[in-house]
Amino acid sequence: MLGLPEAISVALFDLDGVLTSTAVLHRNAWKQAFDAYLSERDPKNWVPFTEQDYLDYVDGRPREDGVRAFLHARQIDDVDPETVTAIGSGKNAQFVATLDAQGVDPYPGSVRYLDAAKESGLRIAVVTSSKNGAAVLDAADLTKYVEARVDGLDIVDRGLRGKPAPDSFLLGAELMGVTPDNAAVFEDAISGVEAAVAGKFGYVVAIDRVGGGQADAMRAAGADLVVNDLDELVSA
């Protein structure tokens, strides 16, 4: 009833954009941080950060990896590490302030899927590049579903490579005591889909909340299935 192969016993969920609507908060915070930097660097000729920039260079990646990827795409390669850290820290401060002020809601379809997963015995972990994973789960009242969590703090502490490398998902599977072929990955970012494919996970479900060409890009990246909402996978 969960739309997964029989061999799958563990579900590894990305957080922002998969279980919660916080991807929008992240995107807006990144826009403020990058636009502030770009406008100060070149006041006359700067080009604003776009939603497509977020999807192509930032979404799903650890914070400083996303900064470097976006700046490189803009042919800005002369930025020192302190500036990279400052841009990322500014973004995170804006995100946390918005989270505190507005809170966060889980997607109803995702909650329905989590309830069905619990009922069926599918074990649940969260794997996110965000260093705010615990706070977001608590704010959305989702912690009760999660057996294990890998977040941006773990990625730094353990010296893991961020998505699109598979390291964080492989750690999630390890913490759950299964091999990748017995775990399904649920992702909304192309970098996350690529990470799951690189890790040879048993099934990759992509959630397209963007539209346009995103679903085709997800399939091209290796997703086994693309849905618009997780409750599409719950049998009526």
TrEMBL record:
- MF term (GO), any: hydrolase activity
Q: Does the keyword Transcription regulation apply?
A: no
Q: What are the entry keywords?
A: Carbohydrate metabolism, Hydrolase, Isomerase, Magnesium, Metal-binding, Phosphoprotein
Required co-factor? Mg(2+)
The enzyme class is isomerase
Q: Which NCBIfam families does the record associate with it?
A: HAD-SF-IA-v3, PGMB-YQAB-SF
The family classification in the record reads: Belongs to the HAD-like hydrolase superfamily. CbbY/CbbZ/Gph/YieH family.
What's this protein's name?
Answer: Beta-phosphoglucomutase
